[in-house]
């Protein structure tokens, strides 16, 4: 949430989970980081490959007004209504104030547990540890045999790797670890 009560929507590429704990890697100079520090909550909207256009429409936008000089130099522009900019629909959350992106097949409501500045100060980097409060999953993504499992073959998550977007390819080999679960 921005200071004025509007919802900020920002793409990011560095996140991972261990159980109900998420770790988000992001820069410390942006609006998203300031919002997380101040508000202490967020919604992580996990897109599928179908949302690549919407994510791309947000790529060079910022919720910071005025646009910081370093972002101006990179071609960023201020956008107040990021949902409209991306062509996405806002929907209510259950446990946090920020709203969810209804087109994303998975939405995770989360509270900030801790913020860890990483690297040299001039790198402007942080890890934000969040605790998942509520999980919303499109019904069609749930595994029919194990209802608490999400089928990656049905989800087709959008993945950013080295500044390019990817989807999952076909499974190449089952994991032996999956056998025990």
What does this structure look like?
With 181 residues, this protein is an alpha+beta fold. It has helices at 31-39, 52-58, 69-73, 82-86, 152-155, 176-180, and strands at 14-18, 21-27, 41-46, 61-62, 77-78, 90-91, 100-101, 106-118, 125-137, 159-161, 164-166. The longest helix is centred in the first third of the chain and has 9 residues, at 31-39.
What's the quick description here?
This protein is an alpha+beta fold and 181 residues long. It has six helices and eleven strands.
Provide the descriptors you would attach to this structure in a database record.
single chain; 181 residues; alpha+beta; Pnp Oxidase, Chain A; five-stranded antiparallel beta sheet; two-stranded parallel sheet; 19% helix; globular
CATH architecture: Roll
Based on DSSP secondary structure assignment, what is the total number of beta strands? Answer: 11
Rg over alpha carbons: 17 Å
Strand content: 25-35%
Structural class: alpha+beta
Shape descriptor reads globular
Low-confidence stretches: none
CATH superfamily: Electron Transport, Fmn-binding Protein, Chain A
Biggest sheet overview: 5 strands, antiparallel
* Total of DSSP H or I helical runs spanning 4+ residues: 6
